[in-house]
Amino acid sequence: MKFYDFLDKSPKIDGLVVIEGEDPILAQRALDAVLDRLLPEDMRALNCDVFDGPESESIGRAAGDAVNAMPFLADRRVVVVRNCQRLRAQPRRDLWAVAESVPDGNTLVLEDLFSPAKKTKPEPYGQLAGRRALRIDTTPNADVRERFVRETLEALGAKAQPRVITILAESDADVGSIRNDLEKLALLGRTITVADLERESLSVEDPKAWQYAAAVVEGRPDEALAIAFELFANDPRGAAVPLASALAGEFALLWELARPGGGALPPRHRWRERTLRPIARRIGERRARYGYESAVRGFEAVVTGRIDDPRSMIELLTADLASRLALLR
């Protein structure tokens, strides 16, 4: 079931829900909607357990114990396991054994962000479950992006030319990038034009530089370098500038959040609070500042021509941040 079909049709929710697809923003909204339907806010502390699958020891046993517990002053217990797509093979098997025997009245929600249209190994939970689960597909297509754009504009109290909506809907951008762009462009205080979008928006450019930066700060340096090398294959001399710029921007946000008192993100970046604040707490202000200053030095070295090999600079910068900032998991 597509994401908006789930919101619009409110299908019955039984023992197993699989949130699949490829968009973490829509996945969060789907999870919020599931919880809103199953448990009142004041009942969640006692009747809802949320696990980060890769970070939880013996996730199969932990989820099994939780989902088999009796609800407390509520109709059901809800157990959520997030980031299942990052689980190794054996924990995935252990968790699936739990999913096959959820007791009547309780619900297990598995966030497994694989595209249901792709054949992957291990087999995604949605494909294993078939019709036994309520499957919510968060993969954005043009229709999903168009509706998301219209909803975001309405929430921001902003307007855009019809062509702007069409461009964003037909782009390959994830909805997080789209929301980020619209939040930024809404600050103009006028109808967003195509010229505004082309001048300011990352969604109509290659978003891979920002994907690279996110992978670095989230502790996935191998994935970050794979993205960077793909950009260098297309633009051997010019790729380092957006990569270093995006990395500096990412660490600037972390540095702000890591300041004493917690800091606050600019309005156009607040949608990333949930992801970035835990990282900022973990690495701390000093290391966030180090990351920012290192990325800025790399950017300056590229644009001033002080280095002859931009690709090697990005590779060394990535490795240095992964080790010095203890971002390797």
Task: Write a compact overview of the structure shown.
With 329 residues, this protein is of the alpha/beta class.
Question: What features would you describe in this structure?
Answer:
The protein has 329 residues and is an alpha/beta fold. Helices cover 56% and strands 7% of the residues. Strand 3, helix 5 and strand 4 (107-111) form a beta-alpha-beta unit. The longest helix is centred in the last third of the chain and has 31 residues, at 273-303. The protein is globular and about 65 Å long.
Radius of gyration based on Cα positions: 21 Å
User: What portion of residues belong to β-strands?
Assistant: 5-15%
Uncertain runs are none
Major sheet characteristics: 5 strands, parallel
Termini separation: 34 Å
Number of strands: 5
Order of strands, widest sheet: 2-3-4-1-5
Indicate the structural class. Answer: alpha/beta
Helix count, DSSP H or I runs of 4 or more residues: 15
Shape, per Cα inertia axes: globular
Helix content: 55-70%
Oligomer: single chain
SSE order, one letter for each helix or strand: HEHHEHEHEHEHHHHHHHHH
Query: Average pLDDT across residues?
Result: 88
